[in-house]
Input
Amino acid sequence: MKTRITELLGIEYPVIQGGMAWVAEAHLAAAVSNAGGLGLLGGASAPANVIRDMIRQCRELTDKPFGVNVMLMSPYAKEVAQVVVEEKVQVVTTGAGNPAVYLPMWKEAGIKVIPVVASVAHAKLMEKAGVDAVVAEGTESGGHIGEATTMTLLPSVVDAVEIPVIGAGGIADGRGMAAAFMLGAEAVQVGTRFVATTEAVVHQNYKDRIVKAKDIDSAVTGRSHGHPVRCLRNQMTREYNKLEAEGKSFEELEYLTLGSLRKAVQEGDITHGTVMAGQIASIIHDVKSCKEVVEGMTSECVEIMKACAERYGR
Ligand code: TUI
Output
């Protein structure tokens, strides 16, 4: 599947792995890049030197292109923005904010810049600022989310900009990938499906929780304070939502989730920890290799599109 995104990034398959906090480390990113997609390292709130080490480790594990996601709400965002230049990272995606201040520096360094957007206005602003592509991420996604669904956001962004658009949020197999392509995407970004892979360095409890997730298991914390985070329902989300309904302050609620993603990912505490995952966890029933995910979803997508053309074409 050749698209403007596969050409831009020099990858075989139009599948990008989300830069997930605590999950998107060197082994996972390298496995996705080695499988022909684009692996991303998730900077999240890690200090710049941790990210520098991840980049170097990833380079040891793959000679294919990979990228770094710069989480703009991180207290270290400025230092991380500098590290990706120093380490000659080829691709940068950004999340949870507006990367405008870093764009001149990144473009001068020849970095391909792909911000994640959750609205048409942000997508247009980014295009004007000179980015290479955008990821339109719907509210079905795990982690920090916007309001619009992938079904509405993706075609709206595709209509509003000329640069290529990557669809994200609710995509975990070839059906979702084909749907995103029908809406005008030229690649997909996939998160949750890559957590449930053999290469993901994530506690088995976390992977099992995704595999067992039902459609009604998705919860959102932090809506009342303007920081909505999607994860899988557990004791933490129940307590959080209860306190939120009681009108507790952002600081009090923050206390409940301090270090809670790490607790779930590394210690396997899926009861008190934050199990970030998208709504699409409900269609994931097994743990696969990254190669199986990348190749499997792309071939299923192509088969579906061919079958559609045969069935409905003239
Ligand atoms: O960034 C994400 N997802 C994330 S970041 C993250 S780390 C975290 N952990 C705990 C609490 C908060 C964050 C976990 N998941 N996705 C990309 C994304 N970006 N989704 C939505 C946005 C976004 C939202 C507002 C992008 C831009 C924006 O505003 C633009 C502006 O102009 O300020």
